[in-house]
Every structure is written in structure tokens, then in C-alpha cells.
Design a protein that fits this description.
Number of strands: 3
CATH architecture of one domain: Orthogonal Bundle
CATH class of one domain: Mainly Alpha
Number of helices: 6
CATH topology of one domain: Arc Repressor Mutant, subunit A
Order of helices and strands: HEHHEEHHH
CATH superfamily of one domain: Winged helix-like DNA-binding domain superfamily/Winged helix DNA-binding domain
Distance between the termini: 72 Å
């Protein structure tokens, strides 16, 4: 397998199949882990092509012998590799200017309404 990038569906499917010796119904992955059917099917196709899993006629999955050896061999890549979530990082356009630590905030005059200055002058 050339691509060693694994999403949560890949990890859950491989983990469950490895931990059980029996076949697992495909619906279980949706029911227990709330995985999207499209993610489940994508993972099944990916691993079936590589010979890691076998999809039976009754919609159950089985981990092949080659698959067991493969999971053991790549367990660090599958289960321990830290995945960076791109949605956690702010866009670069938001990181243009930052205030130095402990510096006072001084707003731009043009951003403050004229009514604010008038209320300061009148003492309200």
C-alpha cells in the first residue's frame, strides 16, 4: 500500500477487524462509530484492493491472513501517527498582525464613532 494516510474510518475498521477473529457486519461500523457510509465504503474498497480485508456476500468483513500481518507491520502508522487537523489552524490571512504581549490596545480613531467623542466632551 503506497498511501499510508489513514482517517478515523480506516482506523476503526482495522482495529475492530483485528481485535475479533470472526466476521463483522458492515452496518456495525455505522451503528457503533457513526461512520458515514461513504467513508466505510471508501475504506472497504481501499483495503479490499490491497488484499487486507475480504467483503463477503452477506455484507460482512473479514481480515485476511495477509491483512493481519500487514496491520501488525504498519501498526505505528495506523494507530500512533498524530494526525494534524487542518481545521484547527487559523487561516494565514488572520495572522497578519498581532499585538506584542502586554502592550496596551490603542484603537484607530477612525474606527471610533463621532458620538463617542461627543459624549466624552459633554460628560455623559
Amino acid at each position: 500500500m503506497n498511501n499510508l494516510e489513514f482517517n478515523s474510518a480506516d482506523r476503526e475498521i482495522l482495529r475492530m477487524l483485528y481485535s475479533t477473529a470472526a466476521s463483522v457486519d458492515v452496518y456495525v461500523f455505522y451503528e457503533r462509530y457513526n461512520l458515514l457510509p461513504s467513508d466505510i465504503l471508501r475504506s472497504i474498497r481501499r483495503f479490499e484492493v490491497e488484499g487486507v480485508i475480504r467483503l463477503e456476500a452477506n455484507a460482512t468483513l473479514t481480515l485476511t491472513e495477509h491483512g493481519r500481518r500487514w496491520v501488525v507491520g504498519y501498526r505505528k502508522h495506523i494507530f500512533l501517527k498524530k494526525v494534524e487537523a487542518e481545521w484547527k489552524e487559523p487561516p494565514a490571512s488572520y495572522l497578519i498582525y498581532t499585538l506584542p504581549a502586554f502592550s496596551p490596545y490603542i484603537p484607530k480613531r477612525r474606527n471610533i464613532s463621532k458620538k463617542f467623542f461627543e459624549s466624552l466632551a459633554s460628560g455623559d
